[in-house]
């Protein structure tokens, strides 16, 4: 699944630089995650880095975008041309 940022986001700016796929960007009110670029850090790290640094725990899995580990790995390969 892609991750999402909920409205509990406090715009602390720590998640954006942690994303290896540049999937996180400032939105109109809070940061947002581009689901087409989010691989949950599959291919880069063992755990999603944005979740690790988020001080308010506002980055859950997006239930509207279910993806298997294999799908996330394939997306990683496409994004990185690996």
From TrEMBL:
<dbReference type="InterPro" id="IPR047927">
    <property type="entry name" value="YfhL-like"/>
</dbReference>
<dbReference type="InterPro" id="IPR017900">
    <property type="entry name" value="4Fe4S_Fe_S_CS"/>
</dbReference>
<dbReference type="GO" id="GO:0005737">
    <property type="term" value="C:cytoplasm"/>
</dbReference>
<keyword id="KW-0411">Iron-sulfur</keyword>
<feature type="domain" description="4Fe-4S ferredoxin-type">
    <location>
        <begin position="1"/>
        <end position="29"/>
    </location>
</feature>
<keyword id="KW-0813">Transport</keyword>
<dbReference type="GO" id="GO:0046872">
    <property type="term" value="F:metal ion binding"/>
</dbReference>
<dbReference type="Pfam" id="PF12838">
    <property type="entry name" value="Fer4_7"/>
</dbReference>
<protein>
    <submittedName>
        <fullName>YfhL family 4Fe-4S dicluster ferredoxin</fullName>
    </submittedName>
</protein>
<dbReference type="InterPro" id="IPR017896">
    <property type="entry name" value="4Fe4S_Fe-S-bd"/>
</dbReference>
<dbReference type="GO" id="GO:0051539">
    <property type="term" value="F:4 iron, 4 sulfur cluster binding"/>
</dbReference>
<dbReference type="InterPro" id="IPR050157">
    <property type="entry name" value="PSI_iron-sulfur_center"/>
</dbReference>
<keyword id="KW-0249">Electron transport</keyword>
<keyword id="KW-0677">Repeat</keyword>
<feature type="domain" description="4Fe-4S ferredoxin-type">
    <location>
        <begin position="31"/>
        <end position="64"/>
    </location>
</feature>
<keyword id="KW-0004">4Fe-4S</keyword>
<keyword id="KW-0408">Iron</keyword>
<keyword id="KW-0479">Metal-binding</keyword>
